[in-house]
Amino acid sequence: MPATISRIAATTAVKTAYRHPSLKRWLLCALLCLFTTFSAISPIRAEDNASDRETLGLYYEPHDLEIAVATRSPRPLSHSAENITVITADDIERLNAHTLAEVLNTVAGVQVDLRGAPSIGATFELAGATSRHILVLIDGVTINDQLDNIAFTGQIPVQNIERVEIVKGPASSAWGSALGGVVNVVTKEPQKGSRFGGAAYFSGGERGTRDGRGELSGTMGSLGYYLAGGNLRGDGFRPFNASERSDLYAKLRWDIPENRGTVRLTLNYQKIGVEEGLFTWRDATSRLTNRQLFSTLSLDYALSDRLTLSGTLKGSRLDYNRNESLISTGEPSAFISNDEITVGGATLLTWRQGLHTVTGGVEYDHGKSDTSVSYPAWPDYNSAFSVRNDKWGLFLNDTIVWGPFALTPAVRYDLTSATGDHFSPSIGAAYSLTDKTILRAFAAKGYSLPRLRPEFRTPEKGWSIQGGLETSEIPFLWLRGTWFRSTAEDPTDRTVREGVEVEARTVPLFNTWLTAGYVFTDATSRSTNTEIPGVARDRWDLGLHYDDRTIRGALTGHYAWWNTPGDWGGKYKNFIWDLNLGWRLYRDRTTETEIFFTGHNLFNGRQYPDETFINPSRWFEGGLRITW
């Protein structure tokens, strides 16, 4: 009788859910919970798949094989169905990079429009998905602003980055507003085994470019600390293009006794001043100043051998000001200010049992943005408005590993005060066909929040499917290929992005290796049945690398066919080649000193989609790096 009643109740629930979509979403969440709960008590345990590291170990350091960006809990990269790229601190150091935008510019599938000297605001895409569709995180804090839902990666310093995890494709089932993907910046941890360590860095180059940074790090007993600060400035490579950025970062970590977990406190402050250049078509020049402060307090605690609790409190403050002046007279023409405050938190539970790694949690964010626009010459057009957005998110995912097969179902439900509710399911599978070949498939629904301006209140939603292969079967060569098809729609248009991404890397031979990447993206508007201008149709990345632990170098080339209309004035027929060289002139057990040199745009190529933002011509810089 109880079983009969249960079947009747279940049937009734399904029929009711079918008639009411919102109940259907909650039923799917409940069914996933029941499935993972009952199947997780199975006595069968996941096999230790030793081939994971055999397949990928030649191309990533061991600690980089565990990633958390896709499901918000660590799992092997070989069990991930998503198209994920990991950039390590060593990769960043080889590039002599200044900002996150410069690092992203070397990744296949990422198209960056570098708009001038380091620290200038740069826009970027992930296989055609624009900046508004991509969530950028630092220590779990969203860097995207509320007003336009974008992040300025050209203003994020690199010295405190341990690694960057990039998901190319919807990640809304884990993070909410992330229709195009996620860029997750993981910052450095306090140095273990030493009370006092650190690094110092200085570089100088043409057009007054100077970058100075310092780090201090160590652990005393159960308390560790990491401090970093820097200043980057330059006169720019075209008129009214100077920039300056100052930043300060601090992390404290307390290790809970008996290795039960950690408590972390972070504080990150940035101040940026940028001259954006000349907008001759409207007789204007502008200067942007940003001050941003964000902080986190997080806990990771092992409740048992199988159950882990994670909690985070976070807050951020953004003070944004833009001053525009007339080129012809120098008189002020417009002033825009935006003051944003965001506070929130998240609680997660991760349960490992049998075949399963289940992660579920709830998070909340409260944000407000106060904006004013004034025109000295036309006071009647002055305006001011405020927007508020409260977001609740509930998510659940499972990674089910059975021998060479890994399945990841996931769901998330978001409720926002500004744009209503959003349901984001996904499912992915990864299969180790051999010890050296992994097949991947992934399908997901996602959304991105709109610009929270009075005239923009409708989010974009869409689906994405991907299929890929990663292999090192060919001797001395690693290959990864991904096919993708994504849609994004709002009440006015539906866009489709379809294409392929291919990456290759050789095994080091005589301390030398080659890298290559190609991405083709066909982006069309279904409302007009035409190609979308300004989306890079073809992207090439080539590299020649050398590192014998004393001398190292990298020659990298980047090319993008931006597919812009002729009246944009873009020029993009040239590869942009950069050369990075380094010599470790002194090294002992605890100290290392390196001098380095970088030649940017060696052949003075042109690569820009819009003549308003011409890329820098050939320029050089060099510097010194010391670690202890």
TrEMBL record:
GO terms for biological process: siderophore transmembrane transport. It is found in: Cell outer membrane. Residues 79-182 form the TonB-dependent receptor plug domain. SUPFAM superfamilies: Porins (SSF56935). It is a multi-pass membrane protein. InterPro entries: Beta-barrel_TonB (IPR000531), Beta-barrel_TonB_sf (IPR036942), Plug_dom (IPR012910), Plug_dom_sf (IPR037066), TonB-dep_rcpt-like (IPR039426). Gene3D superfamilies: TonB-dependent receptor, beta-barrel domain (2.40.170.20), TonB-dependent receptor, plug domain (2.170.130.10). Residues 244-586 form the TonB-dependent receptor-like beta-barrel domain. GO terms for cellular component: cell outer membrane. Its main location: membrane. It comes from the Bacteria. Belongs to the TonB-dependent receptor family. This is Ligand-gated channel. It comes from Geobacter pickeringii. The lineage of its organism: Bacteria, Pseudomonadati, Thermodesulfobacteriota, Desulfuromonadia, Geobacterales.
